[in-house]
Amino acid sequence: PILSAIRRMKSRKEDHIILQLGRIFWEFILAAWRLLFAIIPPHQIAHGWISFICSLAFITGIAYVVTRLTRLIGCVT
Questions:
Q1: In terms of domains, do 31 and 64 share one?
Q2: I need a labelling partner for 37 at 20 to 30 A (CA). Which of 29, 52, 56, 75 fits?
């Protein structure tokens, strides 16, 4: 019983470390995403048309990058 409890504690610590590393990786990816879309101007300027056009341009750019990546790895688009 004591050995199994120790094994469970080690397993929980390892799971915690893996979860923390996953969280750090995910935050790194999201930081780039947030910085990219942070430069879109607020919707109060020009009744939102500038932010609408910028958003469409960014979405188009992301779709282009995803399409290029899928072609690079051989996925069918």
A1: no
A2: 75
Q: Which pTM does this prediction carry? A: 0.57
Q: What is the pLDDT of residue 1?
A: 64
Structural contact between residues 77 and 65, judged by C-beta atoms closer than 8 angstroms? no
φ, ψ of residue 40 to 5 degrees: the values are -70, 130
**How far is it, in rounded angstroms, from Cα 35 to Cα 58?**
12
CB 39 within 8 A of CB 58: no
Number of domains in the chain: 2
Amino acid symbol at 60 = T
Runs of H (alpha helix) within 2-76: 2-38, 49-73
Which tokens belong to 39? 């430069």
